[in-house]
Protein: Disease resistance protein winged helix domain-containing protein
Organism: Eragrostis curvula
Amino acid sequence: METVAKACSPASISEDNICRIQHLGPRDSEKIFLNRVFGANNACPEELKEVKNNILKKCGGLPLAIISMASLLANYKSPGSVDMWNRVWNSIGSQMEINPTLEGMRQIIILSYNHLPYHLKACFMYLSIFPEDYLIDKHRLLYRWIAEGLVSEKRGLTSLEVAEAYLDELLSRNVVKPGSVDYNGVTECCVHDMMLEVILSNALEENFISLVGGPCRGLSYDNIRRLSIHGYGQRAGIEGMSMQHVRSLSTFCPEGQFKLLDRLKELTLLRVLDLEGCKDVKNHHMEQILELETYTLPQNRASATGFWAC
């Protein structure tokens, strides 16, 4: 970070003008960790104290590392969980203790992600569809999870109630951050940049999503199921792309999407369509879309006749 700061600063800026953010000290690190794992009473069992100190030492005073590890271990707080804590400790790269770096931090985030339950992992990976620093409307996300088949009814709960419980758990684990909050709770959420980097890498590798624009370029687009288009000037990116298997389409480009919209009729398997903010959409673009479970249209125009917006 210091290298980046120096490169972006005028040559006249002296060393004295560079603000170096200090890592947390042992006491503050422990306070954050204990509060996240054990709550306000901070009652760490004697059996876990030694490995707790080892984990904090490897976190190197980095707040995100401490919170990620604490969130991972919050479900393992009994004295009998010492083996789990030792496995987590041994999984953290030793370089974090010596030289806390972005790569070391990334290893901790990957560890936290890998320990998510399967149902949460899929829902969390789904957030890689959205651009960096994007505030995601809560209900927009919940209905998309349901339409994608990532959430279903269980034990007397509706699919929407299950989806809300999943989001609450991701928030409690601090892998998703609250964006906006009102008297009813969280209304928007977002993903930390480094978390997004990890889940986007996994999502692309597993062909969970395909991305045009954004941080990834030059990718192969085979058997596309979920397509997300970021940024301006991506019209050429979809030309010649086979879209017959696309089941979910999202665009975060306000303008210049005529070529994409003209191809909607090809998407015979499409179930989820999100054109929020796209100013080019017209009624005739929607006429041949028959199988949609959910879709979002721009808020600054009336919905096409016979359609509704989530």
Notes: Confidence is low (pLDDT under 50) at residues 300-310.
